[in-house]
């Protein structure tokens, strides 16, 4: 029997690319998204498509229970579902912070906790946590997003230690900028007022993000490059603990390690306008 892979957030971008790559590699793929209607192309290539909102406990139980009944267990879990909340810290509501954490962090925790018992019983399993270079370095306007990704990486580091002797591997995937619908959705969620001390900052942030997610920045990756890295890890002889995807991510993570906090801030000031008194 082929290995079973459960992938979240497959309506577009990295999730959809992972579903295609894993299906091509011979895995039995359960591709999920909040709306199953967005998964028609994946169903056409043989993926099992299911609706799944990772913030819905009943939905998690339904999908994982079905896989365990029909295929024994989820052998590969790819926690990809997520989005980016952007905006000045002061103008990002607490509800927006909570929603960001519920999807990007708590959803991944809940799904992982649900698949772990059967993985432990069978002494095998592979869990991909799709993080970001934004789980290692932070940029202006991304407080909620970075909070979710930094926390996801901390959780993953803890989990890796705790489940290793049950035959379960945990892989943190850290892409740089990826040109996809994900970026356009992030722009649509940008919090900020049209006037006030953060207005110019918000407009500069919007412009910087638009350039970045359009793929205009050198070193931007594609969803397929991220998906290939995941498949290579799942089918290779050894499983890495972290995968940095893209020249941009590699360089910026390296650069952050060489700069002081104030040096990093000075570098960011060449990319983003600083908020200042009117």
Helices and strands, with pairings:
Elements: E1 4-7, H1 13-24, E2 28-33, H2 40-44, E3 48-51, H3 57-71, E4 76-79, H4 94-122, E5 125-130, H5 143-163, E6 168-175, H6 181-188, H7 199-213, H8 223-235, E7 242-245, H9 247-258, H10 261-268
Parallel strand pairs: 1-2, 1-4, 2-3, 4-5, 5-6, 6-7
Helix pairs in contact: 1-8, 3-4, 4-5, 6-7
Structure in words:
With 278 residues, the protein is of the alpha/beta class. The chain has helices at 13-24, 40-44, 57-71, 94-122, 143-163, 181-188, 199-213, 223-235, 247-258, 261-268; strands at residues 4-7, 28-33, 48-51, 76-79, 125-130, 168-175, 242-245. Helix 1 (13-24) crosses helix 8 (223-235), helix 3 (57-71) packs parallel to helix 4 and helix 4 runs parallel beside helix 5. The longest helix is centred in the middle third of the chain and has 29 residues, at 94-122. The radius of gyration is 19 Å and the shape is globular.
Keywords:
alpha/beta; seven-stranded parallel β-sheet
Task: Please state roughly what percent of the residues sit in beta strands, choosing from under 5%, 5-15%, 15-25%, 25-35%, 35-45% or over 45%.
Answer: 5-15%
* Radius of gyration, whole Å: 19 Å
Which stretches are poorly predicted, pLDDT < 50 over at least 5 residues?
Answer: none
- The dominant shape is globular
Strands side by side in the biggest sheet: 3-2-1-4-5-6-7
The number of strands is 7
The run of helices and strands is EHEHEHEHEHEHHHEHH
């Amino acid at each position: 029997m082929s290995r079973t892979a459960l992938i979240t957030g497959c309506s577009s971008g990295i999730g959809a690319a992972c579903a295609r790559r894993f299906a091509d590699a011979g895995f039995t793929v359960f591709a999920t998204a909040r709306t199953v209607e967005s998964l028609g192309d994946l169903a056409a290539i043989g993926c099992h498509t299911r609706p799944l909102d990772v913030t819905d406990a009943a939905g998690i139980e339904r999908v994982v229970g079905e896989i365990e009944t029909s295929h024994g267990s989820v052998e590969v879990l790819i926690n990809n579902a997520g989005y980016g909340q952007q905006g000045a810290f002061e103008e990002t509501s607490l509800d927006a912070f909570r929603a960001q954490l519920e999807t990007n962090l708590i959803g991944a925790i809940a799904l992982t906790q649900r698949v772990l018992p059967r993985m432990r019983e069978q002494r095998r399993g592979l869990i991909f946590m799709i993080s970001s270079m934004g789980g290692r370095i932070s940029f202006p306007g991304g407080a909620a997003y970075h909070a979710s990704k930094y926390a996801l990486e901390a959780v993953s580091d803890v989990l890796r230690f705790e489940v290793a002797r049950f035959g379960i591997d945990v892989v943190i995937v850290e892409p740089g900028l990826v040109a996809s619908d994900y970026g356009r959705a992030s722009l649509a969620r940008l919090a900020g007022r049209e006037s006030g001390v953060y207005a110019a900052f918000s407009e500069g942030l919007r412009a910087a993000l638009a350039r970045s997610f359009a793929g205009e920045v050198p070193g931007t990756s594609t969803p397929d490059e991220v998906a290939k890295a995941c498949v290579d890890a799942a089918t290779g002889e050894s499983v890495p603990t972290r995968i940095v995807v893209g020249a941009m991510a590699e360089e910026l993570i390296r650069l952050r390690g060489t700069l002081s906090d104030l040096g990093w801030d000075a570098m960011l000031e060449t990319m983003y306008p600083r908020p200042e008194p009117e």
